[in-house]
Amino acid sequence: MIHRLFAVLAILASALVISSPARAAWHKAESDRFVIYSDSRAEDLEGFAELLERYHVALELETGRTVPVPSPSNRLTIYMVGTRDDLRDIYGGGARSAVAGFYIPRAKGSVTFVPNIQFRTRDIGRAQTGSRYSRSATAQVLDPALSTLLHEYAHHFLIASARHAMPRWLSEGAAEYFSSARFNDDGSVDIGLPNNERAWEISQAAPVSVRQLLDYDLYRENRGNRYTAYYGRAWLLFHYLSFNPQRSGQLVRYWQAVAAGMDSLQAGEQIFGDLDRLESELRDYGRQTSMSGMRFSAERFRIGKVTVTELSDGHAAMMDVIMRSDRGVDDEQAAMVAADARLIAGRYPEDAEVLAALAEAEYDAGNDDAAIAASTRAIAIDPTVTNAYVQQGYALFRKAADAADKEAAYAAAMAPFEALNALEADHTQPLIYYYRSFTYRGIAPPEQARFALERATQLAPFDKALAVELAAMKAAEGDAVIARYLLAPVAADPHGGRQSRFAQAAIDYLGRLPEGSRADFGALRDQFEAAVDGEGGEDDS
């Protein structure tokens, strides 16, 4: 690692960029950690997948953390949806939505949606070490959508590599710090470059003090309806604490104190010292014309093979349905998506990917028998299409809830998950639904089922609903300490809405229980929902 000085305005949009053709053939790029769907050219998509794998390695090198290669179905799926209008349409929120990309973490497969990202590719041959960097992309984060994707993947990485709760400023500051990465022609990667977009924000938006960063409730009380410099100041504080030699180690000690249960503002006062002095130092730091960054040389990067395949005509035709289903639909949307899926499946009745997508659309629309029929046909055509097993299992589980013979119904519902487990041992859904095959019947899960849920949570630490489910299991066993540990990151999520508020209520409740007491989360949730509804049901997400 080599310290380097970079000018604040060094990242200029001077490179030519190319956009993928508007209606080109759809391709799927697969690497160790990513699955990318795009209508970009195959060679461009391969280079882009390599860029993301290099970014992951750079995160490991910078943080000193290692994240194991996920099982195939637990890789991050990235959809390049087309134009920003296409992204806004999938995201929802109306014509005024300014979203540049979004990320949905979940155990059944985390997804990110971005517009077609502009980048350039250049054949730079082989690095001196012989590592393969052909068609690696040079990307100085010229496209805001790429910056958004890097930001969201930084969140994904940080959650996957550490279970401790992160204060919001620390989480967002770290993601902003990493999102300004630069990928150079020689295969090296720069991390911690000045974030020019946030530099503008700091100078133009409403100011945010260090105390407001450390105390999110204080920030919310004072922000009003103004556009604030919260993200910019979070980035600046993270960068300053990372590179100022006089404050070496303070950032780590601060996070350790917060993870141990100390209040964020209290931890800041204890670790950082005089906050007024830090405020003054940070103000001066933001006025500098140059800042330090980290460069990792090409020989430090080893990435696996990237495979790019062209989608079948049917699979390509179904991509809009697939993306909308993966985004999540309400009842009205589900009916429309299912209708579209049936039309496409009628044209491609022998395409297993099409039928698996149809099964998901039918399940979302509440049509369990149709979902089971479509998934059965998909599996018969191609037994490697894992989503077909998942959707069949979902539908059978929902039907089992109303079955007269629940034991037989849930045993049948587990069959597709058992088949899926044989295909992919670390797929999360068989593990989760094995546990639920007992709890949904009101039966205490055996040890093996409890272990299965714990394993699923290890594989998908970013799924907060799953963390709450495991916390409920631990609380019912009388292990309040572990339950509160699991709930802490959920409660700290500023975008978690009701779920975060419930997690905090559960932490408070568990803290009042005598040691070793068993807690009933079902009754606690009922009380919480009644209280929230009594307040008008407002959601702060």
Written overview of the protein:
By secondary structure, the chain is an alpha+beta fold. 55% of the residues lie in helices and 9% in strands. It folds into four domains: 1-194, no CATH class; 195-290, no CATH class; 311-448, Tetratricopeptide repeat domain (Serine Threonine Protein Phosphatase 5, Tetratricopeptide repeat, Alpha Horseshoe); 463-541, no CATH class. It has helices at residues 42-63, 84-91, 144-161, 168-179, 196-204, 210-214, 216-223, 230-243, 250-259, 264-272, 275-286, 313-317, 319-327, 331-347, 352-364, 368-381, 386-400, 406-423, 428-439, 447-459, 464-476, 480-492, 497-512, 521-534; strands at residues 2-7, 27-30, 34-38, 76-80, 102-104, 111-114, 120-121, 137-138, 182-183, 189-191, 290-296, 307-310. The chain has a six-stranded mixed β-sheet, sandwiched between helices. Strands 1-11-10-9 form a four-stranded antiparallel β-sheet. Strand 2 (27-30) and strand 3 form a beta hairpin. Helix 5 crosses helix 8 and helix 22 (480-492) runs antiparallel to helix 23 (497-512). The chain is globular. The model is unreliable at 1-22, 121-142 and 536-541 (pLDDT under 50).
Low-pLDDT regions: 1-22, 121-142, 536-541
Radius of gyration over C-alpha positions, nearest whole angstrom: 24 Å
Beta-strand content estimate = 5-15%
Main sheet record: 6 strands, mixed
Helicity range of the residues?
A: 55-70%
Tally of domains = 4
| CA-based shape | globular
Contiguous helical run count: 24
- Count of strand segments: 12
Average of pLDDT: 86
* Strand arrangement, major sheet: 5-6-4-3-2-12
The chain-level structural class is: alpha+beta
Report how far apart the termini are: 39 Å
